[in-house]
Amino acid sequence: GLKKRTVADWKKIFKFDTVNDEITITGYIGSETTVEIPEMIGKRKVTAIKAWAFKGCTDITMFIIPDSVTYIDSKAFNGCGKFVIKGSSGGYVEVYAKINGRKFEAI
User: Fold this and answer.
1) Running DSSP on this structure, what letter comes out for residue 4?
2) Which end of the chain is more exposed for a tag (fewer CB within 10 A), N or C?
């Protein structure tokens, strides 16, 4: 699982906005090849990934996305290389992957 991180720690990894008291991931500034999207940043739930959030992140080979995420823009991963999306079987993330022709593996 994820290490306990503060909001300040997360700001070194992701760019994000707060919308209606929920978090939308808008960019990635980390250097990991496996990116695990947190369910929570601080006391707020992570619910969306915006278009171009991972633009040009060609080194990322895997995204692990929690059930808290209920919206991913179809362009969120544009400009990425080959990667796998991992999430709950039958959940929103799997449906997103299938619709958008992304490789999916159930956690």
Assistant:
1) P
2) N
- Report pLDDT digits (tens) over 40-61: 999 999 999 999 999 989 999 9
Quick one: CA dihedral 11, 15, 18, 23, positive or negative? negative
pTM: 0.94
Say if CB 104 and CB 98 are below 8 A apart.
Answer: yes
| Residues 6+ positions from 87 with CB-CB distance below 8 Å | 64, 65, 66, 67, 93, 94, 97, 104, 106, 107
pLDDT of amino acid 4 = 80
| Cα torsion through 26, 30, 35, 39, rounded to 10 | -60
